[in-house]
What does this fold into?
Amino acid sequence: MKLNLLKKTAYFVAIAITVTALAACGGDKAKDKEQNTEVTTEEESSGGGKINPNVTPMVSKAPEAADADNLKDVFAERFSMGVAVNSWQLADSNTLDFITKHYTSITMENEMKPDYILDQEASASAEDGMPVLKLDAVDNIMKMAEDAGLKMRGHTLIWHSQTPGWLFRVDYDEDGDYVDRETMLARMESYIKKVLTFCNEEHPGLVYAWDVCNETMNDSQYSGHRTDSPWYITIGEDYIEKAFEFARKYADKDTKLFLNDYGITYGEKCKAIYEVATGLYEKGLLDGIGMQSHHDMENFNPDNLEAAIYKYAQLDGLEIQLTELDLHNNDNSSDSMQKQAELYKQLFDVIVKLDAEEMANVTNVTFWGLNDSTTWLTGFRKETSYPLLFDAGNNPKPCYYSVIESVKEYQ
Ligand code: GLA
It folds into this structure.
């Protein structure tokens, strides 16, 4: 699908005005103590192309889609629908039925992160000095996904968080000094090669996208690289490019490579991500931007989201995925649920419009959790949150119906 260039140019002018007007807005930020994960609600600006026809493979046409009683069919013509899960949910048949009813794509909430895969003892005694991986649990997860006919987003290879500190240290000893750049590059290549080769050989075609790097940029108003990441400290600023080089080298040719981050709909962080993405894209290393999309009800601004997607889509054909969507809401009154439904609709209005009008290549939306009883936000904020489309009993909330309204307008 080619973008209509005239449309795109005119649109860009309009967006540029919006971006300027919004440049002073900001997002808030909090720290996940449990997982040592920083999270910023997404509030930003910037600006789309849809040329690459290689969209996510499991999206199929469904003319009567809007009448379907599930998300995956309603949205099939636009983008695939995904959800973050844990292995116990895949192993439970009722939960798995619910997953496969609504979604075609899953992301493991934690279990494919380096923390879960790396084996310290085996690494320390490895003859070649390279990290050793334990992939049995991942293998089992991937089998369950395959049996259920699901596809997977791989999350994540290179991240400052949920990656063991010893990986960066001499002799894989957490008290040791950092290793030198060459050693760390060799460890990085080895890790990426082992994970991707395992996926290619044991479960070919299952993982259609990888978040190669997660959360590489700082949150400050000046943004720039996250310089306290052990990847940055040991390798230097080009660790991102190196990670993408290795991922491209070892990934199956159909697996899309993503740069994933939060808070990238606004200001300096949006610009910083765009700059890094442009460098990778021009070298043929990047296929998509993952916008985590952890939003707050109070701060969510659809204009910022639209401007940001439009900016990233200037890299023609670049895929845009909302990889960890939720809309934090700690009030389950009916008024608040209605408000949440309106905001979700505004969000989906933006992505459906940009995709349908070929202004951007939106290929997947993944919700970060199955329902309001399993959301990470409740633990993280130490307050109850109701951020998802389904309540604790998996019943559709008002926001479930409102997002479906968005797509109906384009059918
Ligand atoms: C970030 C990470 C996710 C997850 C969430 C919190 O957004 O990318 O993997 O850890 O934080 O659940």
Summary: The domain at 5-408 is CATH 3.20.20.80 (TIM Barrel). Residues 32, 35, 37, 39, 155, 214, 262, 292, 324, 376 surround alpha-D-galactopyranose (CB under 6 Å).
